[in-house]
Amino acid sequence: MNIIEILHLIHEFKEYDENETEIDTVRALDDVTLSIEEGSFVTILGHNGSGKSTLAKHVNALLLPTGGTVLLCGEDTLKTKELWQLRKNAGMVFQNPDNQIIAGIVEEDVAFGPENLGVPTAELEKRVENALERVGMAAFRMNSPNRLSGGQKQRIAIAGMLAMKPKCILMDEPTAMLDPVGRREVIETVHELNRQEGITIVLITHYMEEAVDADRVIVMDGGKLVMDGTPREVFSRVEELRECRMTVPQVTELSWELKKEGVDLPDGILTIGELVEELEKVRRSSVWN
Amino acid sequence: MIRDITIGQYYDTDSVIHRLDPRVKLAFTLIYIVSLFVGHGPWCYAFAFAFLVFVIVLSRVPVKFMVKGLRAMLVILIISALFNLFLVQGEVIFSWWIFRITREGVRMAVMMVVRLVFLVIGSSIMTLTTTPNDLTDGLERSLRFLRVIKVPVHEIAMMMSIALRFIPILIEEVNKIMKAQIARGADFDTGGIIKKAKAMIPLLIPLFVSAFRRASDLALAMEARCYHGGDGRTKLHPLKYGRTDIIAYIILLLYLGGMITMAVLLP
């Protein structure tokens, strides 16, 4: 079943001058059609201004379409009256960890979402405990978020989503402000949630390395979908990616360059292990020749 | 470290008073202030003093912290004492040049000072023993009745708790901007008060810009987490009265009753 169904979505931002007359219209999304299957891990790539954040904000109705339709769990975001009822299906983690933590104590922040949903106190307690455990932050339950690291704060934000029991979590560049350790913590956590709980993950990022383990990679440029496929398929198209001002993971780029120089390698190598294995094959065959 | 600053003057320890429901402590503050103005004469104040000592001992907050609040009040204390001392008419007991001190003046001055001192210490007990978050919760609950006249109690409480959460973040931001401006040759330390005030402008503008950006981000994050106002919201830790809270209320009422009786019966 498709949890997210987007049909011919168009979104325009209007620019106004000081007298509030319209001076310009910017088309952030241009006829995007996309469906995302329940339980999958999808990465959306694109450089700044490609429309990837705008797309994600349409999924949980933080933005409403100028044209086209967005269906979340089969419900049209334009036709739903109580938008907050819809949003519990799709949690959203934002870029800046400080600006999305609402309460001064970790457990109260995690409880914020379900509190809004009117979950009774006894169950709240259970949900908070459970959510914190799943992101590995149970020991910090009574702490102040101000003293946590960036990666820990993002995991708290993820726990805050989990406590709402969403079917899907959207992540808008959750690792952009983190150090490498924090980045790995967050990415590992979401992969685990995807594998163990079957929560659909839509990860928006500009770190190519984070896209390698996804089920599906979507590349956006200028408000349009330009590529869609498995990581291997997408990363084989190095030249096209460069046209969208994107790079590929280092290993992929290295093997692509080697192949161009005449080394017999397959397309779309994604990990160091794969490259080593392929090079080993090349070496053995060249020894025999 | 800047992250460790405590907001308000909460004194962290464990005591019966700390564990009381914030609403009880609000009621205590209110009743104590009322009692100070109901009572008059030395016996009433002795009673108020005894009650204050009883609460302070229970709270286990060092007296040093209680008295701290008085320092800010010192000027007001002195002014009100002097005004009463010299300006109240009555039986003159001392006079020199244009100054005249009357018996009633002395009585009023002493009473005023005692009242103010008790008032400040009495109300600082609440802030010393209640975390700002609990205080916000308590205020939200006890002022709920104001919703009848369309006061947005929940929204105000939410704003207070968000402000509390962002104070350390914004202080850190101020330091960051300050360092960035100093690195570019800004001077915050020399010059007169006007020059110093002008030097704050390049500090305040980026601070406001970033505060607004944070506010807009936070609003989005709250909406994404289904926030839709106070209706239908549940709480992780709802305020619930326990046995000690009820006992505390009874003690408070006994105290107020005692005070009123004394004020009526004693001359």
Structure commentary:
The complex is a heterodimer of chains A (289) and B (267). Chain A is of the alpha/beta class. Chain A has a domain at 249-289. Chain A contains ten helices and ten strands. Chain A has helices at residues 52-59, 83-87, 106-117, 121-134, 150-162, 180-197, 231-236, 238-243, 250-260, 272-288, and strands at residues 2-16, 22-37, 41-45, 67-72, 75-76, 90-93, 168-172, 200-205, 216-221, 224-229. Chain A has a six-stranded mixed sheet, with helices on both faces. A four-stranded antiparallel sheet of chain A has the order 2-1-4-5. In chain A, helix 6 links the parallel strand 7 and strand 8 (200-205). The N and C termini of chain A lie far apart (51 Å). The mean pLDDT of chain A is 88. With 267 residues, chain B is mainly α. Chain B folds into two domains: 15-130 and 240-265, no CATH class; 151-224, no CATH class. In chain B, 70% of the residues lie in helices and 3% in strands. Chain B has helices spanning 16-19, 22-38, 42-59, 63-87, 103-129, 132-142, 153-183, 193-199, 201-224, 243-265, and strands at 92-96, 99-102. In chain B, strands 1-2 form a two-stranded antiparallel ribbon. The N and C termini of chain B lie far apart (56 Å). Mean pLDDT of chain B is 85; it is low at 1-6. The interface between A and B is medium-sized, with 41 and 28 residues.
